[in-house]
Design brief:
Radius of gyration of chain B: 20 Å
Number of strands of chain B: 10
Structural class of chain A: alpha/beta
Helix content of chain B: 25-40%
Number of helices of chain B: 10
Largest sheet of chain B: 8 strands, mixed
CATH architecture of the largest domain in chain A: 3-Layer(aba) Sandwich
Number of domains of chain A: 2
Oligomer: heterodimer
Distance between the termini of chain A: 57 Å
Shape of chain A: globular
Strand content of chain B: 15-25%
Order of helices and strands of chain A: HEHEHEHEHEEHEHEHEEHHEEHEEHEHEH
Number of domains of chain B: 2
Strand order of the largest sheet of chain B: 4-3-5-6-8-7-10-9
Largest interface: A-B, 59 and 52 residues
CATH architecture of the largest domain in chain B: 3-Layer(aba) Sandwich
CATH topology of the largest domain in chain A: Rossmann fold
Number of strands of chain A: 16
Order of helices and strands of chain B: EEHEHEHEHHEHEHEHHEEH
Radius of gyration of chain A: 21 Å
């Protein structure tokens, strides 16, 4: 491939696995900085960028650990780069500290987690969806986060771009919750021409230099950003801070600072929501699923429909913030919501909470290591339709 | 009111000669009277000005602790990061915008204990960063716990029967890992420290300066070492300047002589030099050097 002639974007139809598609999505989104540390099953993303970046003007650094990787990503973002890191469960745990710093300092960046089975070292080479709650609550303190979940290599490409866009629009680290199956699954991936890629700009501050306040929000609650090195003389701290960025250690400032961090996501939840609906009208049972589990569920749904059961399908792409309104609404109309996920019940708890007793809810759990047997999901659908 | 006077706390004082480089709207600072950090900051500002590096190119990064607050008082682009992670954060800043002169000002606990892995790898890479490590022999902000620099037999709150672990010889550590500029001074050596910081800022590669700094409130009081002035008197009587001494010989023992000086200064390829050279060699005309950060004027 001659990148100098064709440009950075890998336009065309390709046969790619999810990890490689994620790397290509990052390139298409304008990411030119990647810091990472090897970990199965995410390493292929780092390897692909290490190979591609020197040919397209990007830079990859293999850091000494995941603590350093995410710290370097935050630094790079403040230098003005579009930056990402990629990891799996054990590395995700190590990144939690500085994901919190990214939330507190409102630093746009993307953290990809190609999930494997846990806890601890768990199943390095086998799939899981067990970090879904960690993506939401893993760093200490109160905050809101954005997380997306892909179910195919094509979505690994498309949604990586979406992750960057949302991280820039809302100035928050965005978690891309892949899993080993999607990461290592190879399928057709169509990459559009570069001029058809919708990559959103950073929210640059364009006012007078001496009037800049790092945390003075726009109308949607998100403040504009500057680059280090442009003489704004900003101070950016992980401490609770006022609009100047200065640490203020009291309850009043905490209230202003932390509530805005949550509200900028909560108040814009509708704008962030990406879900796919199928035959929800008149359904007795709705399967709610995300990631690889949503693909396995399609077989169970088809089988249930053959048996005459009215089954709807709600596929979550945005997993955080959780689509509470949609679930609350559905719960008033259907008999049962069924959620298969490769854990012992994580997003299920959110679904149960949002349903608030207005319909039955059923979890189809799986400890990880492999995907569900569709028959187990089918059994739950049949049970739920009774 | 005299325009050269400003109100500080409850009283007034003449304008600070470096007030243009300090966030005066954050004064008074949180540091104790006779702490060495004020000296470190003034030495840094003086060195930065003398270096003639454009002010906007200088970025200061700190970790957590008493010294971690340095970034918050310096009127440069400055970042107060998480405990131990100042160096990797700075690494990201530097690689993403190589024009920047990125300086880390942080404490011994932050850089050498919790951030130790990042320190040795930045030295190994000869990452083009300047690190000023203010060593007060303990974790002062949390009340005086022992750390990896606490000399054996010294008192700390977590070593109530005296410290017994062997402490790091920090110049030896970073030297052995590949740092290309290494110096150690005390807070008494203002001129030498300023010169060293200036040299470090102008040095290409990983530069490291350890500053032995008095902590009269916590370490000094617990060990009955007297006031800040007494500690400075100790530095005066017990510092031995040995430029280019073997860093192996620079151990610090409790209340014994401290070897200070510029120990290492050499030119070697930086991380970015090595990377660009290898990419050119391997990729030839296909190599596209890093394009730099996004440009706000073009990113619309």
């Amino acid at each position: 491939m001659n990148e100098k002639k064709r440009g950075p974007v890998l336009t065309g139809a390709h046969y790619l696995d999810g990890d490689h598609a994620c790397a290509e999505g990052a390139i298409a989104a304008g990411c030119r900085f990647m810091a990472g540390y090897p970990i199965t099953p995410s390493t292929e993303v780092a390897e692909r960028l290490a190979e591609r970046f020197p040919k397209i003007g990007g830079t990859f650094i293999q850091m000494e650990d995941e603590l350093g990787s995410i710290a370097a990503v935050l630094g790079a973002a403040w230098a003005g780069a579009r930056a990402m890191t990629v990891t799996s469960g054990p590395g995700f745990s190590l990144m939690m500290e500085n994901i919190g710093l990214g939330v507190m300092t409102e630093t746009p960046c993307v953290v990809v987690n190609v999930q494997r089975g846990g806890p601890s070292t768990g199943l390095p080479t086998l799939t899981g969806q067990q970090d879904m709650m960690q993506a939401r609550w893993g760093s200490h303190g109160d905050y809101e986060i954005i997380a997306l979940s892909p179910s195919s290599p094509q979505e690994c490409f498309d949604l990586t771009i979406a992750c960057f866009n949302l991280s820039e629009k809302y100035r928050v680290p965005v978690m891309f919750m892949m899993d080993e199956c999607v990461g290592h699954m190879t399928e057709k991936v169509v990459v559009p021409p570069a001029d058809k890629i919708d990559a959103w700009p950073r929210r640059w501050y364009r006012g007078p230099r001496d009037k800049y306040l790092p945390y003075e929000p726009d109308k949607d609650g998100v403040p504009p950003m500057i680059r280090a090195g442009d003489d704004h003389r900003v101070h950016i701290s992980g401490l609770t801070h006022d609009q100047r960025g200065y640490p203020i250690i009291n309850a009043e400032c905490q209230q202003l600072c932390v509530s805005r961090l949550a509200d900028k996501i909560r108040d814009n939840a509708d704008d962030l929501m990406m879900i796919r609906e199928e035959q929800l009208r008149g359904a007795d049972v709705v399967v709610v699923a995300y990631g690889i589990s949503s693909r396995v569920a399609t077989k169970a749904i088809a089988d249930a429909r053959k048996k005459g059961i009215k089954v709807g399908f709600l596929r979550l792409i945005t997993v955080w913030p959780f689509p509470e309104k949609k679930i609350r609404d559905l719960a008033g109309k259907v008999g049962c919501l069924v959620m298969p996920e490769i854990n012992l019940g994580q997003m299920y708890r959110e679904m149960e909470r949002a349903a608030a007793g207005r319909c039955r809810t059923m979890l189809v759990p799986h400890c990880g290591g492999w995907v569900h047997n569709p028959d187990d999901i089918l059994k739950a659908i049949i049970e739920g339709s009774k | 009111m005299n325009p050269n006077q400003l109100v500080i706390g409850r009283g007034t004082a003449d304008a600070h000669p470096m007030e243009d480089f300090l966030r005066m709207d954050r004064m008074p600072h949180i540091w104790c009277s006779t702490c060495g950090l004020g000296t470190c900051l003034t030495a840094f500002i003086a060195a930065a000005r003398e270096s003639a590096i454009p002010r906007e190119d200088i970025v200061v990064v700190s970790g957590i602790g008493c010294t971690g607050r340095a970034a918050g008082y310096l009127k440069y682009d400055s970042f107060h990061t998480t405990h131990g992670r100042a160096i990797p954060f700075a690494t990201g800043l530097k690689i993403a915008n190589p024009r920047l002169k990125v300086c880390i000002i942080s404490g011994d606990g932050d850089l050498v204990s919790i951030g130790g892995n990042h320190l040795i790898h930045a030295a190994r890479r000869n990452m083009d960063l300047t690190v000023i490590c203010v060593n007060n022999f303990n974790y002062a902000m949390t009340g005086g716990q022992a750390g990896p620099t606490t000399p054996q037999t010294a008192q700390a709150t977590t070593t109530p029967y005296g410290a017994f672990e062997r402490p790091f010889n920090i110049p030896f550590l970073v030297d052995s890992c590949g740092a290309t500029y290494v110096a150690r001074w005390t807070a008494l050596h203002v001129r030498q420290l300023t010169i060293s910081i200036k040299e470090a800022l102008l040095h290409r590669g990983f530069s490291f300066i350890e500053v032995i700094s008095p902590c009269p409130t916590v370490y000094g009081r617990r060990n009955r070492l007297g006031s800040g002035l007494d500690l400075m008197k100790f530095y005066h009587d017990h510092s031995i300047t040995k430029n280019f001494a073997s860093t192996r010989e620079c151990d610090i023992r409790y209340q014994q002589d401290i070897i200070v000086g510029k120990f290492v200064q050499k030119e070697e390829p930086t991380y970015l030099d090595s990377m660009n050279e290898q990419m050119k060699k391997a990729l030839g005309a296909k190599f596209v050097p890093y394009i730099g950060p996004m440009d706000p004027a073009k990113d619309v």
